[in-house]
Q: What sequence folds into this?
């Protein structure tokens, strides 16, 4: 299985907006399959953590790509549900307006289009993470979740039973 992503898709990563990317496709020995990849939602590093949490709820996602700013969609980090839960656990009235950059993960594990899915899964297991951005030429083009990959693996195995 290999990860593929379109490079010429219109749309721009912007704060709280969905990047216009169709579902990513995965290919295996049986043939190409469509997976329900998570929409790529991004916030700038300057946005409040509370706004990031609101975007996650609104779009029903567990992570957001963090970009430099509105004019530069270079990925500078990722913020996840777990990051926000830890922030809530340590929150005080002074931290209510804290920016995402203060809680985001900066050392982001990412993959490129063409990466084998088994390698993505191995990296996720090693790092104990559930979300991994797909990055092409320094720009985020998609987001993989462990759930997406598991669903695709199960679907692939199911189709093998019928061969």
A:
């Amino acid at each position: 299985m290999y990860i593929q992503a379109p490079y010429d898709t219109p749309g721009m990563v912007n704060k709280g907006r969905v990047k216009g990317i169709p579902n990513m496709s995965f290919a295996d020995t049986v043939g190409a399959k469509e997976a329900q990849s998570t929409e790529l939602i991004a916030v700038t590093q300057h946005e409040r953590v509370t706004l990031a949490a609101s975007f996650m709820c609104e779009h029903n996602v567990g992570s957001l790509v963090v970009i430099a700013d509105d004019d530069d969609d270079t990925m500078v980090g990722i913020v996840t549900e777990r990051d926000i839960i830890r922030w809530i656990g340590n929150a005080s009235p002074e931290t209510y307006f804290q920016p995402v950059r203060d809680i985001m993960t900066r050392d982001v594990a990412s993959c490129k289009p063409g990466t084998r899915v088994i390698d993505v899964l191995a990296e996720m297991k090693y790092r104990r993470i559930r979300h991994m951005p797909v990055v092409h030429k320094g720009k985020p083009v998609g987001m993989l979740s462990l759930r997406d990959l598991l669903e695709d693996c199960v679907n692939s195995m199911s189709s093998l039973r019928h061969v």
Notes: The longest strand covers residues 72-80.
